Amino acid sequence: MGLSRKRRRELKKLRGAAENVWGEQREVLEHAAKVLRSAGVTVGDVARKDVAPRVRDSYDRRLAPAVDTTVGAVRHAGHVTKHTITDDVVPAVTGAVGSALAALEVARDKHLREAIKTASRASQEVATKAGQRLGLVEVKPSPGPGTFILIGLGVVAVAGIAYAAWQTLRPDDDLWVEDEPESGRTGTTSTPSPEI
After folding, report:
1. For residue range 142-179, what is the model confidence (pLDDT) as tens digits?
2. Are 150 and 124 in contact (CB under 8 A)?
3. Are 112 and 165 in contact (CB under 8 A)?
4. CB-side neighbour CA atoms (13 Å) of 81
5. pTM of the model
6. Residue 150 near residue 128 (C-beta atoms within 8 A)
């Protein structure tokens, strides 16, 4: 496809104008780079001669004493924390671990495991019969929702038995209550009530 002479001349003029604009832009960018370099040097000199001494002086007068005080406070807090952990936290954690290990020993007991199995079977049978009587559970050869309900009831029963065993076998110092002495009571006498 050929262009007319008029179009070619217009394109040539536009190309020349674009080259002129590009040249002018290049000059502007070079001048801006020179200005930025000179500004960077000036900012560096001002920072070295004016800002840095003021910052150093402010640090020495205001921040350094606060940092020294803070370091002392942090050391004291670390010392207190160390003693709190060794005197309070570690004994509590070891006590809890000991209780957990004792509960595991109880859970390993053969008689307890047999009791849990028996309770699980019994609860499964009772739940199945109750579900059949109410029409909620149908007897199917494949597992259905009733099976999952029974499993849930079995898990609840096992958890209840394990909790009861744990409550029974755990050491508790707060269970003992001292009796009040008989002579300490004042103003109350008990008289037998007449029979009617």
Report:
1. 667 777 888 888 888 888 888 888 877 776 656 565 67
2. yes
3. yes
4. 6
5. 0.29
6. yes
